[in-house]
Amino acid sequence: MTVAETINDTFTEDPIRYCINLVLREARQEDRLVRQILYAMLSAYTNNPINLAINSPTGEGKSYVLTKVAEMFPEEDVIFLSHMTEKALFHRPGDYVIRNEEGHYVSIDHRKDEINSAIQDKENEIERTPDKNLKQGLEWTIRELEKDKKDLYKGSKKVIDLSHKILIFLDTPSIELFNAVMPLLSHDKYEVEYEYTDTHDGIKTRSNIIRGWPSVIYAAAVDYSYHERWPEIQRRFIITNPKMTTEKYDDAINCISEKFGVPDFVYQKTNVSDREKEDVRLIIRTIRGEILEMSRRFDHGRNNVIIPYNECIRSLLPRNSASDMTLVRLLYTFLSLLASINIQQRPRLSIFNRSDLTMRTFPFASFNDLNGALSVIEYMNGVRPYVLEWFYNVFVGSYNRRDKPDSRIITRGGE
Question: In the CATH scheme, what architecture does the domain 3-91+162-199+210-390 have?
Answer without folding.
Answer: 3-Layer(aba) Sandwich (3.40)
